[in-house]
């Protein structure tokens, strides 16, 4: 299973890559919204994790473009705080509040993978 | 002399006997002339004003009664001055004034003056001759002959003598008429003289004549009556009635008389036989002889002592009334207009006053443009009038006493006359006397309503036979009229009455105007008072020593006292319950600075925050003599304001927090994440311990971050309700162990279970927050959680219709400093060593988002009570939206 991790902070990308690879996933990272869209087209990831606050194109717009290209691609939004009632992320499949504890993220990926039948 | 002439002369002389009657004389004359001349008829014409007038005729008539004196045959003979015959031959082509066969005309002359003519027409034939000239004549022509020389001779004779006779007769007639006229005049003079004499004798005035040396030549009965001297005592003696001190004046009068002057109506003083001085009115005029020389002086003297006395009496009465009115107007502050007007009318109708029988006051009603009867004083019937007068005579009260009495008692307003007059309303567009009186400012004294123009309404309603109307003017504005009459006594209203009433009316008008003004002021005062009392702000006046002088109703309501418990007290004692004015009170500042001051003050005893505006009152010398203070309860306003400020603060905070959160969260995430990775790889104990510290601290930071973010982020409140008891049980489980740490007893009182609409988790957070705060503030104490229905609601809750749940968390801990009490709900305000300062701010926010309020009460070292008021669902009201 190939996961595309999108975040504007390289340290975070590094952490997520290490942690998720430890979990046995193939991880590709994008450092900006623009890069995320390019990689999405070339690498065909199975799941995308998307940071909302990014300097070039924000996560919400990236989400829209990704869903336009492939409505069936599962996207997990990573947020700085509780976005539950922000309807702009309803288009995503799940959201996880960012935390140094990556357990909630890992669990969500597992749930999504099961739901979408990705191996 | 011929027979005929002799006869003519004889007849003429006979005529002299009857010369007294000119008409008979002339008729006889013309008859004899015609007889003598054997003529058919004749006419005597006499000249008057240059024309010939027929004055006598015989057997003939002419419609030409007047002829010019130079026309026709008469004119001809007058011109020539001699008798002429006009027989057929002479008449050819001539126009006779009377159609005739023949004529003879005799001029009447005296000296050279023509006085008239005698014309004789148609000589009668006595016999018929064989004269061929007559043979061809008609029968009628045959009857008439021609006048001959003999006739002319008779004519000449007549001309001279008849003229004389006629003239003499005319003269005599004239003389006689003059004599008759003279006799008539004499008789008239005689009559006049006796009339004058009787007049002089019977005159009440003294009529006295003196010569130029002031010796009395005539002295009438009037003089005797006034001065006491009889005719015999003064005739031929010097005039004794001039007092010594007026001799010089008398001389001056005399000089003026000598200059042919007449002195009229001099008011002076004379002396009687008894030496009494009398006031008189004197008219002096010169007596002249038939040739115009001034030979004496006549005096007509009228005793005016009585008149003067009356006059003085009137003046005195007027003065008295004025005084009374002045007094009544001076006390008019206690008199309402009605009472004053009634007193005025009473004065008019009182015997001692003006003494009219009835008086009605009419006032202009500008709104309806009518003159309206307002008030009336007077008896309604003869019987009543008689009763009043007889009782007045018995009691012998003076006007002043009556007025005094009137002032004290309440007037009966419902007399018959009063009701009658109130129904009278006369349009100002009418032109009857009473309306004209008002419109033209004229006085009307109608002496007989049947003979003069009068007001039909008044005759009809008041049954008056004669009345007077006096307009009431105030500052040139007609305000009404006073109507008076003497229905019962039938006493005529004299000019003097009117005069007096008029002088009085001016005062009445002034009094009415004053009373009106007073009325208006009173009304304005009442309005002001009403205004003052209906203002919801608290208003009070004080003097410069903070003593309350006047307060409005709102003030009394707020302070819960009665007016007499407030006025005269010091305001600071009443309001602040202190012994001196508060340092920060605007009232004190206003008194100290002498300038208006505005400020907010929290009034503990009046419950709330007040905006107080205090303005000093100054006397003439600019000294502060007091203040007027307006206090407005702005508690609600202030609460709202504070809420807005707090919300603004939150919004700013939220924005900042979001930024900070984002900036911090990522680095924290990286730090924490990698630390965890390191933790897995590290084997050495010490390093592992260190990395654990990093991991824990990052966790703590992230927790704080979450708290901040959950505070600034809104969350939805569930629309479903839950049972409060369930929540309480949950909370008890949660806190029990923590409470034990500080050895606190925990008491839970839930009086009844309530269904609370809202977010279970959030309200749980509130309860946990309050209980853990109480626990932190208390050691070895008691913490009580009480849940009940709120029966007393704090003022901040605007909707008192709703039912509220009260959650009370009470501790026996250290309490909160007063200065901190207000700030404890501010975000990031904390007194604890550890804590975000957000706990209470979040709790407050949650409560408010549920439509409730949170309040705190605390006393140092005794404890603190937090009270949460939450709105409850009413039956079936579960669908209400309580969104935050």
From TrEMBL, chain A:
Organism of provenance: Thermodesulfovibrio yellowstonii (strain ATCC 51303 / DSM 11347 / YP87)
Q: Which residues form a coiled coil?
A: none
Q: Which UniProt keywords apply?
A: DNA-binding, Phosphoprotein, Transcription, Transcription regulation, Two-component regulatory system
An MF annotation (GO) of this entry: DNA binding
**Origin: domain of life:** Bacteria
Task: State whether keyword Manganese applies.
Answer: no
**Gene Ontology process terms (BP):** phosphorelay signal transduction system
The record, for SMART domains, names:
REC (SM00448)
Return the PROSITE patterns for the record.
RESPONSE_REGULATORY
Q: What name has this protein been given in UniProt? A: Response regulator
């Amino acid at each position: 299973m190939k996961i595309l991790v999108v975040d504007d902070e390289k340290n975070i990308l590094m952490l997520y890559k290490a942690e998720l690879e430890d979990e046995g996933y193939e991880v590709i990272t994008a450092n900006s919204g623009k890069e995320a869209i390019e990689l999405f087209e070339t690498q065909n990831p199975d799941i995308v994790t998307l940071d909302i606050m990014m300097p070039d194109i924000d996560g919400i717009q990236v989400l829209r473009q990704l869903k336009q290209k492939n409505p069936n691609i599962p996207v997990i939004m990573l947020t700085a705080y509780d976005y539950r009632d922000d309807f702009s992320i309803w288009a995503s499949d799940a959201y996880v509040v960012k935390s140094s504890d990556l357990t909630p993220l890992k669990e969500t990926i597992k749930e999504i993978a099961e739901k979408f039948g990705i191996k | 002399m011929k027979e005929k002439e002799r006869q003519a002369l004889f007849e003429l002389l006979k005529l002299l006997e009857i010369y007294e009657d000119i008409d008979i004389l002339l008729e006889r004359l013309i008859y004899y002339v015609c007889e003598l001349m054997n003529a058919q008829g004749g006419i005597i014409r006499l000249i008057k004003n240059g024309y010939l007038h027929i004055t006598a005729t015989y057997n003939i008539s002419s419609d030409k009664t007047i002829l010019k004196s130079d026309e026709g045959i008469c004119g001809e003979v007058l011109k020539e001055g001699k008798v002429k015959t006009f027989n057929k031959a002479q008449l050819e082509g001539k126009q006779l004034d009377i159609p005739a066969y023949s004529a003879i005309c005799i001029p009447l002359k005296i000296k050279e003056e023509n006085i008239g003519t005698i014309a004789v027409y148609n000589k009668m034939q006595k016999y018929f001759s064989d004269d061929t000239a007559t043979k061809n004549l008609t029968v009628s022509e045959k009857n008439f002959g021609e006048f001959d020389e003999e006739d002319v001779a008779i004519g000449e004779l007549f001309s001279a003598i008849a003229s004389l006779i006629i003239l003499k007769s005319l003269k005599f007639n004239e003389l006689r008429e003059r004599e008759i006229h003279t006799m008539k005049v004499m008789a008239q003079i005689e009559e006049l003289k006796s009339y004058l004499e009787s007049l002089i004798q019977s005159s009440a005035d003294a009529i006295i004549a003196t010569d130029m040396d002031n010796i009395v030549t005539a002295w009438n009965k009037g003089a005797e009556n006034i001065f006491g001297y009889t005719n015999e005592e003064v005739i031929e003696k010097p005039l004794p009635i001039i007092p010594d001190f007026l001799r010089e004046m008398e001389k001056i009068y005399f000089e003026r008389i000598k200059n042919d002057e007449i002195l009229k109506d001099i008011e002076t003083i004379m002396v009687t036989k008894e030496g009494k001085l009398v006031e008189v009115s004197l008219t002096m005029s010169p007596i002249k002889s038939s040739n115009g020389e001034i030979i004496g002086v006549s005096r007509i003297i009228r005793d005016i002592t009585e008149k003067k006395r009356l006059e003085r009496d009137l003046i005195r009465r007027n003065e008295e009334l004025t005084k009374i009115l002045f007094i009544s107007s001076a006390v008019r502050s206690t008199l309402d207009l009605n009472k004053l007007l009634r007193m005025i009318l009473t004065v008019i109708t009182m015997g001692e006053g003006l003494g009219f029988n009835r008086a009605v006051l009419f006032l202009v009603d500008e709104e309806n443009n009518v003159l309206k009867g307002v008030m009336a004083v007077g008896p309604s019937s003869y019987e009543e009038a008689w009763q009043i007068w007889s009782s007045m005579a018995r009691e012998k009260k003076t006007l002043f006493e009556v007025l005094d009495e009137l002032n004290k008692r309440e007037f009966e307003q419902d007399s018959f006359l009063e009701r009658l007059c109130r129904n009278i309303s006369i349009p100002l567009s009418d032109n009857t006397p009473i309306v004209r009186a008002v419109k033209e400012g004229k006085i009307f004294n109608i002496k007989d309503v049947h003979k003069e123009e009068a007001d039909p309404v008044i005759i009809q309603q008041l049954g008056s036979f004669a009345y007077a109307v006096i307009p009431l003017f105030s500052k040139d504005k007609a305000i009404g009229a006073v109507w008076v009459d003497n229905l019962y006594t039938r006493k005529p209203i004299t000019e003097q009455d009117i005069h007096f009433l008029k002088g009085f009316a001016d005062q009445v008008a002034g009094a009415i105007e004053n009373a009106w003004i007073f009325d208006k002021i009173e009304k304005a005062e009442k309005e002001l008072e009403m205004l003052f009392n209906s203002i919801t702000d608290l208003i009070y006046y004080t003097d410069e020593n903070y003593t309350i002088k006047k307060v409005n109703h709102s003030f009394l309501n707020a302070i819960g006292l009665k007016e007499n418990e407030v006025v005269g007290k010091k305001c600071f004692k009443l309001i602040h319950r202190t012994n001196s004015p508060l340092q920060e009170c605007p009232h004190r500042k206003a008194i100290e600075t002498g300038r208006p001051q505005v400020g907010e003050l929290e009034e503990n005893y009046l419950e709330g925050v007040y905006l107080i505006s205090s303005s000093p009152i100054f006397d003439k010398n600019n000294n502060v003599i007091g203040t007027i203070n307006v206090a407005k309860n702005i508690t609600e306003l202030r609460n709202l304001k504070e809420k807005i400020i707090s919300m603004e603060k939150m919004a700013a905070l939220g924005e900042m927090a979001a930024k900070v959160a984002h900036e911090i969260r990522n680095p924290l995430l990286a730090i924490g994440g990698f630390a965890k990775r390191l933790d897995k790889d590290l084997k050495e104990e010490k390093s592992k311990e260190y990395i654990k510290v990093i991991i824990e601290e990052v966790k703590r930071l992230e927790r704080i971050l979450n708290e901040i973010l959950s505070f600034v982020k809104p969350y939805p409140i569930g629309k479903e309700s839950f049972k409060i008891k369930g929540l309480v049980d949950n909370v008890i489980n949660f806190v029990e162990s923590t409470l034990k740490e500080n050895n606190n007893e925990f008491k839970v009182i839930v009086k009844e279970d309530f269904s609370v609409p809202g977010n279970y988790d959030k309200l749980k957070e509130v309860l946990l927050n309050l209980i853990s705060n109480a626990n932190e503030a208390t050691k070895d104490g008691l913490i009580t959680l009480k849940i009940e229905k709120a029966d007393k609601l704090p003022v901040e809750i605007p909707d008192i219709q709703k039912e509220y749940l009260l959650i009370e968390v009470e501790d026996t801990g250290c309490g909160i400093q007063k200065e901190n009490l207000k700030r404890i709900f501010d975000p990031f305000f904390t007194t604890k060593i550890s804590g975000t300062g957000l706990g209470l701010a979040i709790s407050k926010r949650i409560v408010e988002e549920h439509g409730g309020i949170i309040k705190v009460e605390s006393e140092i070292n005794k404890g603190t009570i937090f009270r949460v008021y939450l709105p409850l669902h009413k039956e079936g009201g579960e669908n209400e939206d309580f969104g935050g």
